[in-house]
Every structure is written in C-alpha cells, then in structure tokens.
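Hi R.,

Here's the chain you asked about this morning:
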Amino acid sequence: MQRRNFVKRSAQGVMILGSRNFSMPVEEMWTPKKTDTHVHLFNLNRFEYSWLKNVPKIDRSFTLEDFSEATHACNVRNILFMESGADQKYALQEALWVTELARNDKRIKGLIAKMDLSEKLWKLSEFQELKKIAILKGGRGTFLLDRPDFVDNLKYLGDQRLTFDILLPADQLEKAAGICHQSPGTTFILDHVGHPDYQSGGEENWKKGIDALSQLSNVYCKVSGMISRIGVQWTLEQLRPVFNYVFMKFGPDRLLYGGDWPVVLLADSYQSWSNAFNLLISGYSRSVQNKMAHKNADRIYDL
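And the predicted structure, written out as tokens:
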C-alpha cells in the first residue's frame, strides 16, 4: 500500500492509516469539527526561514491552498496561524501578511505572532504595531527561564488579554511551571504535549513537568506535534500513553487540537494525524470530543 493512500476500506471494513491497521470500523469513525490551533504557512518569496535549511523536505512555500487540499476530509473549520519560524526581523511583517490572508479566508480566526520577550514589550514600537492587529490572540518566542524581567513581559501579555505558547524540551517544563505560576493572569499553551520521549511513553522529567504545569489553571496543553516528533515509523500505540497521561492531568477542558501543518509531513499526511487524533479521543462522549477538537480553543481564544 502506498503511504499516500492513508485511508481506505479494507476487506474487513477497518480503518487503515498509512501502513497501520488501527482496527477501527470505518462506519464507526466520527470526525468532529476541528479548530486547528497550530497552522504554519511559509512564504519564501517574502520572508527568510533559517531553520528550514535543516529540513529540506518542507523547505518551500506552503499556501492556504496547500492546507485546504491536505485537510479537505478533516472537518477543519477554524484556523489559528502559528508563527512559522521566520527570522525575527520579519515577525511583524509575517503577522501583517497573515492579516491580509484572513481578509479573504474566514477560516483564519486568529494568529499567534512571533515575539521577542527579552526587552520590555510596552516600550517596543513593533509590539505596539502588533497590538493593532484585530486577530492577534497571543505570542510565541524564546522562553527565557533565567530572566526575571521575562515574567514582567508575561504578565503584561496577560494584561493585554494575549496568550503565550510554551515550546521547550521536556526537561525544562518543571522550571517553566514556576514561571507560569508567577503570571496567574496570563494564559499559557503548552505546545506539542511538551515533547516527551515516545519510546518510553513519557520519561520522568516530562511527567514531572506535566504534573507541575497541569496544577496551574492558567496552563493548557496542545495535542499536536506528536507524530512529527516520532517520524515516519510512528504508531498509535506510541501516542496512546502520552495522550492518556495529559488527558488524566489536564482533563478534557484544557486540551486543544493542533495539526502542526506542514511539519506533520515529516512523518505522514495531515489526514493521517487527524484520524489518529480522532481515534485517541474516540473513547469519550461526543460532548467531550467536541471540547478537545474545537470548543476549548474557541473559548480560550474567544473565537
């Protein structure tokens, strides 16, 4: 079977994703409406992305048309653009470009902009320009674990009703929880379930970090980037213990869906990941599934 033939009906009537037989009857597969909180778009004609030179498979422009083609069967209704790693000098330009796209594509409900929190935000003219963007929902940038003034910036984001995404390796999550604790008025989103080691089902450092972060009511967890981290040999069995752990710790009201487009292509198709997510949440009521698939995100980001 070709890997791109990721969904087919077999003779036994089971769902097949890639080369993986997940033993889910096709007729029982329900696809909830999704708000994708983690969509990257690359425009190499306008911006530079230094990091893409290390990942040649996706080192090209990715447009909304590419996203639409990849997600046509995934029931994605709303999109949050996630800053896509354009070099810092393009941060404001990237956000303004996405604003242009949103005028013509009503799926784009918000954007998470790249932010440099090493200086006082309220003194930066670039941040004042960012704040004028109506669909701005939050920021992401280097999480400065050892900078006291970083906390002041995080508090300021909360005062502006803006969120901040946490993108850190697993062994730094517990320390990050201490910083989040100092900013109770700011909403934090943990990206990619905190980058666990999937071979072990989540190492102890990761579990300690998840334990600490989940105790804070202002921290949410994004179910994203899972198969991207594992690679082409991913299996549902590797995902389940990690998903089950974050579900147990954060509960159904603090989990969000993220597609990680187009980074997901390093492992498989978008639809394969979307179907895997559907299977991970399929044991819960449709009410609970809807929370994780779109309602939590719609509430947190006021969509």
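The domain at 31-300 is CATH 3.20.20.140 (TIM Barrel).

Let me know if you need anything else.
M.
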